[in-house]
Amino acid sequence: MTGLVDVTPEPWSGRDDGPGAEHVRWHHVVRPLVADDPPAADSPAPTTIVGFASDEGVRRNKGRTGAATGPGALRRALAPMALSGPINVFDAGDVAVTDGELEAGQERLGRVVGTLLDAGHLPLVLGGGHAVAYGSFLGLARSRAAQAGARLGVLNLDAHFDLRPDPVPSSGTPFRQIAEHERARGAQFRYAVLGISQPSNTRVLFDTADALGVRYLFDDACSVADFAVVDRFVDAFLDDVDLLYLTIDLDVLPAAVAPGVSAPAAYGVPVETVQRVCDRVARSGRLALCDVAELNPALDIDGRTARTAARLLHRIVTARA
Ligand SMILES: N=CN[C@@H](CCC(=O)O)C(=O)O
Ligand SMILES: [Mn+2]
Ligand SMILES: [Mn+2]
């Protein structure tokens, strides 16, 4: 996909304990995807990594910049992870936003994601600030399946609604932009958020969410004791969609687990719950697209945010393999 990305994929490397399946780690099996036409999907359908190296949306949203180096840090955290079975994963390289051209970068990401979807791949997009979500969604909405009438749903794991009314796109606006995109093409906006922090969202944002029919669960209703509620929430949303886009904003996790984000969570959803949701979605047969957003390696402590994110992505990829 060298014609569609800005940065071509590098070979992966990492710790090597010897040959054979018993020693295999991610870096042994991830293959660079360089052809402009992605190989047709086999079984299991390939997962293809695309980076979105951008923190322009975070900057515009008055956040702490640094997420542009997130894709590299996530690849480095995934590379040494040991595999207990085969996976089918490509790396297509990065879309890189420079000189503040966020909107053009989102368009480019949409083209990569749409191309991968039409070839039967699961795009796994590594952000980047949460402005990545609008680019990811553009690809899904323009895919052949969506154009043929598939019901799309966005499940966001996030402390924030990201439904800001600001006219300038940023990391605070992607789901309001998606709502407008869906309205413009005559499609229903199906958006669910798990992990909403009440003190991190103004009344305006709650009113916007209500007006748009957004389904949400608060962070303090997502503990391990709340698994039954969380399961029902996820299953009800899955029942209502044909193709699910899962977007993970790492600030949904407690700050102790995910300090390396623009806006660390004072409360947060425990990693047990987030992993449970990832498992459920990955096994649903409806997961079409996934991204992870807001990793800021410069603010991370001992790489713990990157490691947690990589572990969740590992879980998603291996659960559906
Ligand atoms: N991705 C954006 N999230 C938040 C940031 C909040 C903050 O910086 O405190 C938002 O815009 O609401
Ligand atoms: Mn957030
Ligand atoms: Mn967000």
UniProtKB/TrEMBL annotation:
Its EC number is 3.5.3.8. It catalyses: N-formimidoyl-L-glutamate + H2O = formamide + L-glutamate. The keyword Hydrolase applies. Catalyzes the conversion of N-formimidoyl-L-glutamate to L-glutamate and formamide. Belongs to the arginase family. This is Formimidoylglutamase. It comes from Gordonia cholesterolivorans. Pathway: Amino-acid degradation; L-histidine degradation into L-glutamate; L-glutamate from N-formimidoyl-L-glutamate (hydrolase route): step 1/1. Binds 2 manganese ions per subunit. Keywords: Histidine metabolism, Hydrolase, Manganese, Metal-binding. The gene is hutG. Its cofactor is Mn(2+). Mn(2+) 2 binds at D158, H160, D249, D251. Mn(2+) 1 binds at H130, D158, D162, D249. Residues 1-21 are annotated as: Disordered. NCBIfam families: hutG.
